[in-house]
Amino acid sequence: MALRLSILDIVVFIAFIVTVIGVGIYKSRQEKLTSEGYFLAGRGLSWWLIGFSLIAANISTEQFVGMSGQAAAGVGLAIASYEWMAAITLVVVAFFFLPKFLKSGIFTIPEYLEYRYNPASRSIMAGYTMIIYVFVTIAAVIYSGGITINTVFRGQNILGIPITVTSSCWMIGILATIYVATGGLKACAWADLIQGSALILGGAIVMVLAVDKIGQTDFPQLAGTAVEKAGGVAKFMALNKDKMHMFLPASNSVVPWTALLIGLWIPNFYYWGLNQYISQRALGAKSVKEGQKGTIFAAALKLLIPFIIVIPGIIAFNLYHGDMAAEARIDNSLLFQKYEAIKDKPGEELIAFRCNEDFKKLYPDKALELEAYNRQVEESAKDSGREVNEETLVGYQYDSAYGLLLKKLIPIGLCGLMFAAIAGAVMSSLASMLNSASTIFTMDIYRKYIKKDASQKTLVGIGRACTVIFVVIGCLIAPLLGDPAFKGIFNYIQEFQGYISPGILAAFIFGLFVKRAPGSAGISALLLSPVVYGFLKLVYAITGITLLNAFLNRMAITFGVIFVVMTIITLLKPLQEPRKMPVREGIKTESSPYVKAAGIFVVVVTIILYIIFR
Fold it and tell me: Does residue 395 contact residue 359 with C-beta atoms inside 8 Å?
């Protein structure tokens, strides 16, 4: 079932990777060995580099695996809200956030909080960001790349190395580290230009092949209908009428329509406006206008992404749901081995084997057997006062959706290109995260608290060392994320970011528009966020309140609570005088009416798409 790599495929793959790394390192050699040259590309990035780099840094196997998997799982086109609402978000960021950041001359987003509130706010955000980057996003992106490569090429060897999830994770991590540690942001930006282009081209190829395949396939549910012999597009729409809507019921746990009002805006504004590994590209712009042009260009590209990620995910389930079940059986096999070993002694090892709804439908008899066993385990736990550990058996491995499309549809000769595009996608995002995590540690922690008078050479050296350390940690954690308890890689990332993003966004929004908000308001926002969000999760676990089921709703409530607290603090103890922000010398601050018109056009097109697929 796996793709067979020919000699030509391997040559294409190696040539692509060597080109990416070589161009990135070559272009970065033009920068001076300073912190500004290494971390911000000398503040000289052009709009087209910024735009492609924003997309390449964002679109990774997190989307190709997680988002296409959610689409296959039944969420359908509604998951595209992460992309289309991001287009509007980028327009707002370009005209409201970016000018303030560029004028102040900051290296990192946490640095802005020090100027607006106090040093403690900067330190808290830097600490949050480091934890999330190293233990969540870096590990998640490495894992998502590893699982896709393993799904497509399982059982094969590349240059004598067996392809497994673990080996794929280390390969991706090492390749990304080479050019990030060597060339910094400029190497990332130029590598992103190549990898972003391959990403879009590869996605378009898969989309065309998937639609063509669905047109050639006979589906029993379409027999006798007007579209039985129709083309791929007509068959796709007939098969997936219930999945081509942007508005899902309020009870949906992934993207309920209620989340579109407030909840989804929070991770969007946090991610595109305040997330270091994204914002760092715009912070490296040569002027405000250049940064805005690049951001609007990225917004326009975001409108295309669902057509090369989400829709193929839906098609994958139409064509290959049987293979997804087979992938799940492989994942379940170890759990079944564990169950067989302990099923006659439920009181010794207190492990409950839960079954998700798909598993219950596919294997009802086995599900009943496991439920009976679980009751025995729970009774033993109650009698002994011990805690029950849980494992989850799934019916379909939805995260394999995109990998199955590649495995089934890509003809011999294009395998190397697609393999390179997949590796390039994850390398772009991983490289961006590594560069940004090292920037925050170096500028917000090392230079501020460990060695304030560090030389430029030392700062660059610390940044490079951090890159290596962070990727090692990520590669060690990544294989652990296959546990079904995480409910898919996309959910894993969003759920953990829910603890910090409402507070960070509230601190910035309130600080930008309420000039007399004191430092204590900023600190309160950052400290309250994980407490309130965690409390809401606990309430849902205990009560099962439907509104709290979706993490987007919990984020919206958390944001609202924090905003109220910040308002009260400001009313009780406002600043006597607004804080003055620093002004970077030599920055060109003028915008352009053409850029504003382009931004308005992107917003209008996004609204039209929501109307069409309402």
Answer: yes
Within 8 A by CB and 6+ apart from 419, the residues are: 5, 9, 13, 149, 152, 153
pLDDT exceeds cutoff 80 at 263:
no
Note the pLDDT of residue 568.
Answer: 96
Residue 113 reports pLDDT greater than 70: yes
DSSP state of 242: G
* Maximum Cα–Cα distance across the chain: 77
Contact (Cβ atoms closer than 8 angstroms) between residue 391 and residue 355: no
Alpha helices in 105-225 (DSSP H): 109-116, 119-132, 138-153, 165-216
DSSP string, 477-503: HGGGGG-GGG-SHHHHHHHHHTTTHHH
Average pLDDT over residues 362-368: 92
- ∠ CA 117-121-126, nearest 5°, is 135
Backbone phi, then psi, for 389, in 5-degree steps? -90, 150
- Identify the residue whose tokens are 């009976």: 372
60-69, 323-332, 524-533 — which one is most confidently predicted on average?
Answer: 524-533
Q: How many Cβ atoms are within 10 Å of 74's Cβ, its own excluded? A: 16
Between residues 393 and 37, the one the model is more confident about? 393
Return d(Cα 75, Cα 311) in angstroms, integer.
Answer: 11
**Residue 114 contacts residue 444 (beta carbons within 8 Å):** no
pLDDT of residue 153: 66
Contact 47, 290 (CB under 8 A): yes
pLDDT at residue 573, as a whole number: 93
| Three-state DSSP class for residue 583 | coil
Q: Encode pLDDT of 574-614 as tens digits.
A: 999 888 888 877 777 778 888 999 999 999 999 999 999 98
Tell me how far apart the alpha carbons of residues 471 and 175 are, in angstroms, rounded to a whole number: 10
Measured in whole angstroms, the distance separating CA 14 from the mean position of its chain's CA atoms is 26
Q: Can you give the C-alpha Rg of the chain in angstroms?
A: 25
- pLDDT for residue 1: 44
pLDDT reported for residue 155: 65
Parallel/antiparallel/unpaired status of strands 157-158 and 351-355: unpaired
- Domains of the chain (ranges, CATH numbers): 7-322+400-497+584-612 (1.20.1730.10), 332-395 (no CATH)
- 352: enclosing H helix or E strand: strand 351-355
110 neighbors 132 (Cβ within 8 angstroms): no
* Chain centre distance of CA 9: 28
Burial 310-322 (b: 16+ CB within 10 A, else e): bbbbbbbbbbbbe
User: Which of 261, 228, 248, 273 lies closest to 98 in space, CA to CA?
Assistant: 273
Q: 516 by DSSP, 3-state: which?
A: coil
Residue pair 416/5 in contact by the 8 Å Cβ criterion: yes
Distance CA 287, CA 40 (A): 13
- As a residue count, the chain comes to 614
Taking alpha carbons only, the member of 322, 416, 349 closest to residue 4 is 416
Element (H, E) at 288: helix 288-302
Q: Mean pLDDT throughout 444-466?
A: 89
d(CA 511, CA 517): 6
The pLDDT value recorded for residue 460 is 87
